[in-house]
Specification:
The protein is built from 7 helices and 4 strands, in the order βααβααβααβα. By secondary structure, it is an alpha+beta fold. A 4-stranded antiparallel β-sheet has the order 2-3-1-4. The protein starts with a strand and ends in an 8-residue tail after the last helix. The model has no long low-confidence stretch (mean pLDDT 97). The chain binds adenosine-5'-triphosphate and magnesium ion.
């Protein structure tokens, strides 16, 4: 099924010059980038994005991290894009991530794990709408 998903290169990925590496892995997988921009979220904007995690012990820390510097946000499109991009990213905890995944190769911490990807089509729809207007989505 053709799907869209929301991907983020997190502040650690941007500051460590990993934008090109992540984009290359996405393109090599045959997934299309249909929208892309750089943003620097406020704490409130990061809290809105990670609303599903409100109340969890890492909520304050992860929203501080996500608002600590610029991110690259992208809309990806392809067959089964949600799960295929999650597979490219690897597990949340990089120590458990499969070899060859972005997080296994580049994450330094359970929080500073370089990339985000929507975990379902339903959440992808919310997250894409959170960052992009219809006018910004190509294709
Ligand atoms: P993301 O939503 O960023 O793609 P994910 O879906 O793999 O990651 P989530 O459970 O949604 O993982 O957690 C969101 C983010 O919060 C993680 O990517 C990580 O940056 C941070 N995080 C998750 N669990 C922990 C934890 N136990 N301690 C610290 N930070 C955490
Ligand atoms: Mg998640």
């Amino acid at each position: 099924m053709l799907q869209r998903t929301l991907a983020i290169i997190k502040p650690d990925g941007v500051s460590r010059n990993l934008i090109g590496t992540v984009v290359k892995r996405v393109e090599d997988e045959g997934i299309k980038i249909v929208a892309m921009k750089m943003i620097h979220m406020t704490k409130e904007q990061a809290m809105g994005f990670y609303k599903v995690h409100e109340g969890k012990p890492f909520f304050d820390s992860v929203t501080n991290f996500m608002s600590s510097g610029p991110c690259v946000v992208m809309v990806l499109e392809g067959e089964e894009a949600v799960t295929r991009y999650r597979k490219l990213m690897g597990a949340t905890n990089f120590k458990e991530a499969e070899e060859g995944t972005i997080r296994r190769d580049f994450a330094t911490d359970i929080e500073k794990n370089v990339v985000h990807g929507s975990d379902s089509e339903e959440n992808a729809a919310f997250e894409i709408g959170y960052f992009f207007s219809a006018l910004e989505r190509v294709g």
